[in-house]
Amino acid sequence: MTRPHRSPPRDGSTTQIPFGLSLSKPRPSSITAGRTGVGAALLLLAACARQVPSAVNHAADTPGFLLGLWHGFIFPVAWVLSLFVPEIAIYAVPNDGGWYDFGYFVGIVFLGVGARSTRTVYVTRRARR
User: Fold this and answer.
1) Which pLDDT value is given to residue 26?
2) pLDDT at position 51 over 90
3) Cβ atoms 22, 14 nearer than 8 A
4) Is 27 exposed, middle or buried (0-12, 13-18, 19+ CB in 10 A)?
């Protein structure tokens, strides 16, 4: 017994495919282009932001690579505490810039959260007799 052939809907809103799934109509390119334009405008606006020069004066005690390394290492604890204690921050401002950021990255990835190793356990099953 064969199933009757169903013609696709004339408005093109959905198309039925086997197993009860349906495909929705693709978005018009004008909607996609509009969303891309808005996203690009927001990204451009964010790129124009800068810090106030008086807020980033570098002194002798400005955090550098080593403090960035430490702050990256203690990030998980500092982040949880910062949710409850407003005086705790997870990132030092002002800092040395690139070297502090690099230390922070190394602290998170190699020493902190990202350094958790995983262990694969292989289980062999005995063949049934």
Assistant:
1) 60
2) no
3) yes
4) exposed
